[in-house]
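Tutorial, part two.
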Amino acid sequence: MNLSAIQNALRERNLDAWLFYDHHHRDAIAYRVLGVPESLMVTRRWYYLVPAQGEPQKMVHRIESHHLDSLPGKATQYSGWQELESGLKQMLAPYKKLAMQYSPNNRIFIVSLVDAGTVELLRSFGHEIVSSADLVTMFEATWSEEQVKSHFEAAKLVDEITAAAFLEIGKRVRGGGTNEYEIQRWFRERFDQAGLVTDDGPIVGVNANSGNPHYEPSEKIHAPIKQGDFVLLDVWAKRNTPDAVYYDITWTGVVGQTTDKQRELFDIVTRARDAGVSKAQAGVKAGKIAGWEVDKATRDVIDSAGYGQYFTHRTGHSIATEVHGNGANMDNLETHDIRELLPNTCFSIEPGIYLPEFGVRSEVDVLVRNGAAEVTGRIQRELVII
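Running the prediction step on this input gives:
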């Protein structure tokens, strides 16, 4: 835990304290931010209070009294619920505005982890509970310079492998045939050779399967790739080194000649992508922008073209050591993400249009640093002719 950084962040946001709370590992964010071992057997509630100034405080059950020993601060123990509530009331008394892993109306659900009963209890003590969402972004999703370096290393390799994949698909189609699963396995072999790792995927989707945003081929379920087919490749990986961060892209192509409909949708989607990038860049340069504003910029382009009902997911997600990180998402559809795009954070911009016969998505990664936002890899400008 970086205590001084947390306290500085609290003071900058005029928050009195950040209250962490867990029971049965319900809040994985708390363990990561505080550096508490996730291997602990936690059968009783614990609380950890980090004030904007002064020494942190702990409240732990007597039979699990050593769980927070690795953290600074004085510990208060409890056994019964009456003792717990009176102890909490006393510990929190000096602090009016408390940040917690809470989101009003569950709007940002990935940080909405504190149960309603706990919020009700603390409000009954007279405290104002506010969302820790931007704090979580700062301590969960911002990158070190070493992580930035690992991202660009992964970008170079993944871009090269993805370009080679289109060539491999063409060679195999003309040389006897292939299928989605074979190409997925080809990717995984190239990742291993390049020192890249991934949690699952990549997505190799042909025709109707490309219209399913979370389709993934398997050994049992996959489609052949033939002349005339539309192909979508959604590829994510990171260097196989400690604390490396992901690079995540989506490209599309056609085995043979493109159709008017394919070109139309590709043009709309890439214009929407570029509108999102421009919005992020302008907002970062101006000093403040939230994730929902980027989503709106991309969605407006697709809505204006008459395909709004076929853009069925958020524009983008936070990227960190997990491909879906805990920073701001580019989202005004599934949630209204009011979190700011903070320095040294990264996110995808990946609008799509998904028809029953095929779907187009174009994805780039955008990194915020030094008062600017930059696309970190290659940008697809035309459909790949395979």
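The two ends are 50 Å apart (CA to CA). In part three we will examine how such features are distributed along the chain.
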